[in-house]
Amino acid sequence: MSKITWKSKRILTENGMVNGYITIEDGYIRDISDHCDGAYQDAGELGIYPGIIDIHNHGFGGWSMTDPCEDEDVRGYAKALASVGVTGILPTAKEDAFEAVARVMDQDYEGAAIYGIHSEGPFWARGGENTVGMSWPLPDVEETKRLTARAGGKMAMMAIAPELPGAYDVIRYLHAQGIKVACCHTAAHSREIYDALEHVGFDIATHLGNGMQGIHHRDVGALGALLLSEGLYYEVITDLNHICADMLKIMFRLQPYEKFCLISDSNYIAGLPAGTYMRYGRKMFADEKGLILNSDGRICGSGKWVLYNIGQLVNHVGVPLEAALRMASINPARFLGIQEKTGSIRSGKRADLMFVDEQFVCHRTYVGGKIVFDRLTDTGERIFNPEAMKRRVENA
Ligand SMILES: [Zn+2]
């Protein structure tokens, strides 16, 4: 039996911020109180918040889910993500990584809990995007069956462009399997978004505002149609590289905070030192602000993580800290249907927690009541992928 009580000035509970004590026992949150009769540890200036659940993440700390993967890559990835407060994850993987992710989900591993595989594509429409090729496979139910089988029944979510021929059949198939459907990298006009919602429905918009038509005053595009629709969740990248602060303010006026899930969309360079990295014989540039660009100057995923994005919302968009934290924890938990188990701080829930300072740096992470990251001992050399560090060819 393990039991520990922490004191903190800021514990974000389901009922708001508490200055008090939280007791973790045998993996679960046992009690939150304003007094403590027994022994306790003092978290000092660190806030204790619900751990982050990132439902769209391709890699971190040099570990990539978009390359062929071994089990150790997935375990390294889960461990590295805990260093930025992530306690739950949907690895957003390419097909070559599905099997390893599925295997590791059945193992004991130390780090963010893996809740399933997220396949972003392959049925998408990326023709409008700078320098991205025009040809992608069209939606096909048999191909979808093959992909979900390769994921070992652990596909949790697939993103698809709903306007493509055959998309409705694929969406119906995914829903029949209990797999969430995201609307992504789409060339849809507003009419096609409304039609898809009416005929088959989908569950969430992939990185709202990115990879879709924006709002014009005579045509609100996919972005406007998604924001005017009800019953959807919205992934959003709030690093302020992908979407400007004013557009985020527009989004939050049109839909309540409860509908948004903060995501990183990070790739494997995220978390590594800024500089130039070689990948598939091409250079990728990572700067201090989290921009990752290819040699054509196109944004290739994000170099930042959700905890950083929470800080951006609080410091530059005027979102209250509590709302920003919830967009990264209980909202994605609700989206995934695991809100009774995790996603917030309440007595009886699993102890998935992050200890965070006022600069939005994570110092300690608990998953299931076990410490899986401690800033004092888990230094970069211990959590980064050493192979990725070898691909760094120049400093920033
Ligand atoms: Zn992505």
Automatic annotation (TrEMBL):
Signal peptide span: none
Chain positions recorded as Zn(2+) binding sites: E120, H185, H207
Classification via SUPFAM superfamilies: Composite domain of metallo-dependent hydrolases, Metallo-dependent hydrolases
InterPro entries according to UniProt: Amidohydro-rel (IPR006680), GlcNAc_6-P_deAcase (IPR003764), Metal-dep_hydrolase_composite (IPR011059), Metal_Hydrolase (IPR032466)
One GO process term, biological-process aspect: N-acetylglucosamine catabolic process
Residue ranges annotated for the Amidohydrolase-related domain, each copy included: 48-372
Cofactor(s) recorded in Swiss-Prot or TrEMBL: a divalent metal cation
Isomerase in keyword set: no
Secreted found in the keyword field: no
Protein name: N-acetylglucosamine-6-phosphate deacetylase
Natural source organism: Enterocloster lavalensis
Origin organism lineage: Bacteria, Bacillati, Bacillota, Clostridia, Lachnospirales
